[in-house]
Every structure is written in structure tokens, then in C-alpha cells.
Amino acid sequence: ITDAILGCILFVISILCKPNCSLGFLPGFVISLIIIGTLHNNLYKTLFKVSFIVICSILTLGVQYYYTFIHNALFEHPSKTIFAPFLVWRSYSPHIWLSCLLSLAFPISVVILYFRKSITNIQLIMAWCSLFIAIIMMATLAEYPVYSAGNYLWGSIACNYILFVYSTKLLLIQRSDWKKYICYAIFSLHVFSGFYLLYSFF
After folding, report:
1. 113-144, pLDDT tens digit by residue?
2. Is the Cβ–Cβ distance between 33 and 125 less than 8 Å?
3. pLDDT tens by residue, 170-186
4. Phi, psi (5° rounding) for residue 174?
5. Where are the alpha helices (DSSP H) in 1-104?
6. What does residue 82 show for φ and ψ, rounded to 5 degrees?
7. Distance of alpha carbon 26 from alpha carbon 126, whole angstroms
8. Cβ distance 153 to 93 under 8 Å?
9. pLDDT at residue 36 tops 70
């Protein structure tokens, strides 16, 4: 019960800070917990914790939605959420799949070169699941008519950071060999491109 209450509090805080990130993370977190509970023959207790967290999260999201889009006492929200595949993404990148591949080059290299260790690392699996769901949201949802702000992009950005963290964590504990050096080289390209982007921006 203590774990469920703590998890609920953390998810509510996360939703209040950045709902898009939580929408990507919550399904992956729930699926991962159910898998762990099944493997440890503790499914019913896990389902109780998961249900408690999900209910609290949905209620928090519902309250946010209501007071933002339906009953906003401060201002009338100028947009609504619509289903519009790749509408926002196309406005930022003309090469969607290439941009996705370049953004995920480092974690993809970790999975390819350390496949067996990656598929048994529950933290990494959870990070990939969260990012996958966030990317689906980013690719299919848009705020209309003010879609150019790309508000559904933020969840994928936050989930991508988390994926990089756990990919790096897995890489750090591996022995030094050619596979590790390749991953570090690809990671360095991410770093240099990030510095170049900041330089170009300023």
C-alpha cells in the first residue's frame, strides 16, 4: 500500500508538471509492473497498485482537461485536440523517418550491440515503451488550429532523455571493447550536434 501511495503521489506531481510525458510513461510503467508481478507470482497485489495509480492519474488528467479546455475561468482556450497524422511533425521535419533515426541513433546502437542485455533490462524496456507511445502521440495528435506550437512534442522529448539516461547506464557497466567505443562515438555525435544547434540558435 505504501508503494502504491508513493507511486500515486509521484505520478500526480509528474502529470501536474508535464502531462504529455506522463501520458507516454504511464502505459509503459503499467505494462512493465504487470510483467514483473506475473514473473514473481505477485500479480493480484501488483494489479491493486497499478489500479490505484491509474485511477489517480486519470482523475488528475481529467481535472486538468476540464479546467483547461472546458471550464477555464481565466481565458478561453483557443485550440482543441484533433487526430491529424504527421501534421505537426511535417512542419518541423521534411524527412520524418530520417529525423527519427538520427534522434535515436545512440539508444538504437546500444540495443543492437547489446541486444541480449537490453531485452532483459526492465528499466530500458520501460523507457523504450514510454518513448514509443509518446512518439505515437506526437505523430497523430495536434492542437487545432494552433498546431504549430507542437505541444504534443514535449512528451517525446522528455521520454527520449530518459531513454538516453538508461541506455548510458547500461553501456557504462559493459567491458571496454569495440562495441562500447562505437556506442560512445555515436553518443559523441549527438553531443556535438546539440552544441552546434545551440550555437546556431544563439
Report:
1. 999 999 889 889 889 988 998 899 889 988 87
2. no
3. 999 999 999 999 999 99
4. -85, 155
5. 2-17, 19-39, 43-65, 87-92, 96-103
6. -130, 160
7. 10
8. no
9. yes
| Side-chain half-sphere CA neighbours of 73 within 13 A | 0
Residues in contact with 84: Cβ distance below 8 Å, sequence separation at least 6, in sequence order: 140, 141, 142, 144, 147
Does an H or E element contain 144, and which? strand 141-144
131-168 exposure pattern, b = at least 16 Cβ within 10 A, e = fewer? bbbbbebbbbbbbeeebeebbbbbbbbbbbebbbebbe
Element (H, E) at 173: none
61: cell is: 488528467
Handedness of CA 36, 131, 106, 13 (dihedral sign): negative
**Which pairs with CB-CB distance under 8 Å and at least 24 residues apart come from 106-109?**
106/164, 106/167, 106/183, 106/186, 106/187, 106/190, 107/163, 107/164, 107/167, 109/182, 109/183, 109/186
* Assigned C-alpha cell, 127: 523507457
Q: In degrees, to the nearest 5, what angle opens at C-alpha 22 toward C-alphas 21 and 26?
A: 130
Residue-level pLDDT at 108: 97
Give the helix/strand (H/E) hosting 70.
none
Any long-range contacts for 95-100 (C-beta under 8 Å, 24+ apart)?
96/139, 100/135
CB 64 within 8 A of CB 19: yes
